[in-house]
Amino acid sequence: MTTATKVAVPGRGRRRHRPLRWLPLAPATVLLLLFLGGPIGYCVYIAFTNMQLTGAATTDFVGLDNFRRAFGDDDFRNAVVLTLVFTFVSSLIGQNTLGLALATLMRRASKPVRTVAGSIVIAAWVLPEIVAGFLLYAFFRREGTLNSVLDTLGLPSQNWLYTLPILAVSFANVWRGTAFSMLVYSAALAEIPKEITEAAEADGAGGIRRFWHITLPMIRRSIGTNLMLNTLQTLSVFGLIWAMTRGGPGNRSQTLPVFMYDQAFNKALIGYGTAVALLLLLVGALFSLVYLRLMREEV
Question: What is the rounded CA–CA span in Å between residue 275 and residue 282?
């Protein structure tokens, strides 16, 4: 009498049930494809056409003409430079450094001071972007608060939105967005074991050495994540700049989002404006890849 023996094949059960693992993610995937992938795909199509808002009867496929026009446009190159300056000053230096400094100082402050300071910083963050833009416009304008304070102190005043427009909007973005960095770094600093810093202090390490050799290495992942999120958010800032300067005077504060809006809606060149938007999306993707690569190398 023979007995049939079933031989188990390794991995066969796992392969059979693998498609079922994706079933709970199916609704979210469909929504992402519908509301994110769909518009992006349509924008990619428009970027290769000459679509306009002037009621043209037909829309023709023009290939790479919009992108060639962008790279040959002095105003586009100016917008790229100003976008990099705006991102570097307000995000990489301003929000990141100030947020880390506030988070570090507030850990040593008393509870009332932490509550008041945190509330003030977060209040600027939760304001709508357009409201924050008008507030900072009132602060920097020729008859604004800053010049009134300078006049009271006997210091020279100037029209900041005319003489230093890109720095004025950069400062405005720092004022509005520092709260996010402060919250990220506050959470990261709270995770550092007290035993490590106490041991370093007992060994005679000063505050600066402890911060440089212990604190920063232990929160480097949070620093990378914060830099990536801040950079992507800053690259897309539009309402703040539009409310303060509308990209002017001339084009001296016209970053890529403002340039894109001007081309697409003021000049009715939807195809060209969408091509600029895709280039901006590409810049954000490059920044993300750099940050992800740096964080992966640090592990």
Answer: 11
